[in-house]
Amino acid sequence: MINHFNIAANMLGLSGSVLATAMFLWAIIQQYFPHNFINKRSKRFLTLFYPYIQITFNELTSERFRRSEAYSDIETYLRKTTSTQAKRLKAEVIKNNTQSLALSMDDHEEVSDEFNGVKVYWASRKTVHDTQSQSYEKRYYKLTFHNRYRQLVLTDYLKHVLKQGKEIKLKNRLRKLYTNNGGQWTHVVFEHPASFQTLAMDPVKKQEIMDDLTTFSNGEEFYKRIGRAWKRGYLLYGPPGTGKSTMIAAMANFLGYDIYDLELTAVRDNTELKRLLIETSSKSIITIEDIDCSTDLTSQRKESKVLEEKESGSTKKQNKENESKTSKVTLSGLLNSVDGIWSACGGDRLIVFTTNHVEKLDPALIRRGRMDKHVELPYCGFEAFRVLARNYLYLETHELFERVRGLLEETKMTPADVAENLMPKTSPPDQEECLMSLIGALEKVKEDATRNKAVENKVKNGPLNGSI
Ligand SMILES: Nc1ncnc2c1ncn2[C@@H]1O[C@H](COP(=O)(O)OP(=O)(O)OP(=O)(O)O)[C@@H](O)[C@H]1O
Ligand SMILES: [Mg+2]
């Protein structure tokens, strides 16, 4: 419990009893001297004997029904201190992605905090108010600090508390995955387990992306200073099954952002697109997947369609292209809308496009400034394989690794296929069996590729040979 009387006595270098005597004398002076004389000096006297300032933060706003945001920011900020200092705590389960327990100060508890070497005190208080019709409780936090630090506390410290509280709340909140449906956003809870740690790709490239994301998310001041909107565009490209969608989920988990998965084929026209984008909230990733088949955005659209049929036979992507015929979104509409969120919305937003055919996208769509960072997700290389081996088989190294390395260099297999072949069939995993299964699959891919090449050459040379 903070004893202000003792604090004041200590500050003045007096014992409690000396201070008590002084206060008694002051009470006598108050009795016998004229009122205005006392008023003038009482302030000085009080500051001398009790040099503390107090600020109250009520739980409810003046409308009495709404919870004050500052109160809840302070509550969140104080959780860490509370859990180590307070003797009586209140616990509640917060439904965030980890379902953790949130601890806060119980009524009439007190804790201290330190900022730039200055000590301040926080107390949680409750009063009960009775009116004719009802009785209600009023809760508030009381901040106490020395008058000497008034400037520091009122500006820097309080700013720090509210900012930190907000940031912690954002990190812990239940995150959402939004999809557009009939011109509206609908959401479900976003619970994808992907992380950068489990993402199979070259570690140097991975670290570079993580650093870029961290710089971006901490860059509010920087973006303000250089006069740019706090936004960043990512283009992820590579063959199907190389981890583009997985990387978006990992980015959202890494930054603690929501995801807006924008299905362009379900957007009626450019106006609807613009509205949907403007409705997105800050701290979010807006994704447009398979941008090359989403809508009529490429001049070589027809060629792309034929190629798609030939290469992957992916019916999902085919359907997407067919559906896009009903959408009237145009390339210029998309460019305008992307530029619109760049300028019309405050707060940080990432926009991520994914494609299997980067060469077919209009350069205007992916130019730097719209898509600032282009990331290629290639077929599985040895470093990506090592991440998968670690995740799936708890293996750092193995004598079969060299064989795998050689085969990966000669073949094209996606991380999705490598992962599938490494999937343990027993528990605990038989590491050698899994590696042999992968080697078998890689050898088969290599054989198929050689055979296909031979057939291709035959077809290419066939008519010529025949004519000779
Ligand atoms: N780089 C990777 N690291 C870890 N897992 C991966 C990786 N790439 C693919 N996978 C696994 O393969 C599955 C498919 O990956 P994902 O959906 O991310 O591919 P994609 O590149 O988005 O494919 P598409 O172009 O068809 O959309 C995922 O469930 C994931 O588990
Ligand atoms: Mg994908």
From TrEMBL:
Residues 230-381 form the AAA+ ATPase domain. Keywords: ATP-binding, Hydrolase, Magnesium, Membrane, Nucleotide-binding, Transmembrane, Transmembrane helix. SMART domains: AAA. The keyword Transmembrane applies. GO terms for biological process: response to stress. The chain crosses the membrane at residues 12-33. InterPro entries: AAA+_ATPase, AAA_N_dom, At3g28540-like_C, ATPase_AAA_core, ATPase_AAA_CS, Mitochondrial_chaperone_BCS1, P-loop_NTPase. GO terms for molecular function: ATP binding; ATP hydrolysis activity. Residues 302-328 are annotated as: Disordered. The keyword Transmembrane applies. Its cofactor is Mg(2+). It catalyses: ATP + H2O = ADP + phosphate + H(+). Residues 302-326 have a biased composition (Basic and acidic residues). Gene3D superfamilies: 6.10.280.40, P-loop containing nucleotide triphosphate hydrolases. Belongs to the AAA ATPase family. BCS1 subfamily. This is AAA+ ATPase domain-containing protein.
